[in-house]
Amino acid sequence: MDAGFDRKMLEALVCPRTQGVLQYDAEAQELVSKSANLAFPIRDGIPVMLVDEARVLD
């Protein structure tokens, strides 16, 4: 895990659309919801859990 991102926070977070689990993508600095087909950005160590800010996965 990235030093600026807390593993315990990841365990507590769920996808705001599906309430499903999230996968941490360290390279892209995103939290990925495969069930919603969205990737939520992590900015300055803070996950932005807004569907409007998420990137749609290919």
Please give a structural write-up.
The protein has 58 residues and is mainly β. It has 1 helix and 5 strands. The chain has one helix at 7-12; strands at 23-25, 30-33, 38-43, 46-47, 55-56. Strands 1, 2, 3, 4 and 5 form a 5-stranded antiparallel sheet that branches. Strand 3 and strand 4 form a beta hairpin.
Which stretches of 5+ consecutive residues score pLDDT under 50? none
> Any idea what the radius of gyration is?
10 Å
Q: Beta-sheet strand percentage?
A: 25-35%
Mean pLDDT: 90
Ends: how far apart?
24 Å
Class from secondary-structure proportions: mainly beta
Q: What is the molecular shape?
A: globular
Biggest beta sheet summary: 5 strands, antiparallel
- Helicity, as a percent range: 10-25%
Count of runs of 4 or more consecutive helical residues = 1
Keywords:
mainly beta, globular
Q: Concise description?
A:
With 58 residues, the protein is mainly beta.
Secondary-structure blueprint of this entry?
Elements: H1 7-12, E1 23-25, E2 30-33, E3 38-43, E4 46-47, E5 55-56
Antiparallel strand pairs: 1-2, 2-3, 3-4, 3-5
